[in-house]
Amino acid sequence: MHSSPTAPFGRFDACWPAVSRPDLLAKPVATALEKCGDAGLVESVLVVDTDPEVADTAAFSEAYEVPLDLSANCVVIAAKRGQAVTHAACVALANTRVDVNSAVRKRLGARKASFAPMDTAVAETGMEYGGITPVGLPEDWPLLVDEAVAAAPYVLVGSGVRRSKLILPGALLARLPNAEVAAGLAG
Fold first, then answer.
1. Sheet holding 46-49: strands in order across?
2. Reading across the β-sheet that carries 72-81, which strands appear in turn?
3. 3-class SS at 179?
4. Which residues contact 3 (CB under 8 A, 6 or more apart)?
5. Residue 187, domain member (yes or no)
6. Cα separations in angstroms, 185 against 28, 71, 93, 141, 160
7. In this structure, are residues 27 and 157 in contact, taking their beta carbons and an 8 Å threshold?
8. What is the per-residue pLDDT across 84-95, written as a single tens digit (0 to 9) for each?
9. Which positions carry the signal peptide feature in this UniProt record (predicted)?
10. Which among 33, 37, 47, 101 is least buried, having the fewest CB atoms inside 10 angstroms?
11. Residue 35 is part of which domain span?
């Protein structure tokens, strides 16, 4: 009999290899995991089923006893240079804030950078607001990962939907398409 894995932190009823529970993932997330050729890597991505009413970071942290320094947020950025708008994503620990106006803007070579409007973020990613994750983002988007996230043994991020979360090695985020580990991205 195959036993279920145990979450490395938090208080969850159960967790599973994410690839075995596509019902708990947004379609782009499930597709990204299916396409990954490294079975060991894919098996290291866990999913936990949670209450969507407490999906926002502070409420989730309290309800499931997940320290903010083990939880990471993925934010969608709209970077403008002239008339061109480029979308990107940034991942930072929940106890920090992404420096959009300086660090992100400069890294993206933009004149102006801001958080993308919610409807744009949802439409462009194919994920639910409050569940957007770096796994399964559009392949042409830059992905900036704060160095503290990449260094974490495990972090909790969205699953693309509000009702579940992924737990995965921070270093895995640095290996996603178009990912760049960025020092000073958040503070």
1. 15-17, 46-49, 164-168, 155-158
2. 112-115, 72-81, 84-93, 143-146, 179-182
3. strand
4. none
5. no
6. 25, 16, 10, 17, 23
7. no
8. 999 999 999 999
9. none
10. 37
11. 15-182
Residue 45 pLDDT > 60: yes
Query: Helices marked H in 44-111 — which ranges?
Result: 57-64, 105-107
CATH number, position 169: 3.90.960.10
Given a contact cutoff of 8 angstroms between Cβ atoms, the answer to whether 102 and 90 are in contact is no
Residue found by looking up tokens 């462009």 in the block: 124
Q: Which helix (H) or strand (E) holds 32?
A: helix 27-35
Please name which of 52, 12, 33, 27 lies closest in space to residue 126, comparing C-alpha atoms.
Answer: 27
Span 61-119, pLDDT tens digits:
999 999 999 999 999 999 999 999 999 999 999 999 999 999 999 999 999 999 999 99
7, part of any domain: no
Output the six-digit token pair for 125. 């990613």
DSSP state, residue 2 = P
Residue 10: DSSP 8-state = S
Domain assignment present for residue 6? The answer is: no
Reported as type and span, the H/E element at residue 125 is helix 118-125
Distances in whole angstroms, Cα of residue 47 to Cα of each of 23, 84, 103: 10, 36, 31
In terms of DSSP bridges, do strands 15-17 and 179-182 run parallel, antiparallel, or are they unpaired?
unpaired
Assigned token pair, 171: 């270093």
The Cα 60–Cα 25 span in angstroms is: 18
Q: What is the pTM of this model?
A: 0.93
Domain count, the chain: 1
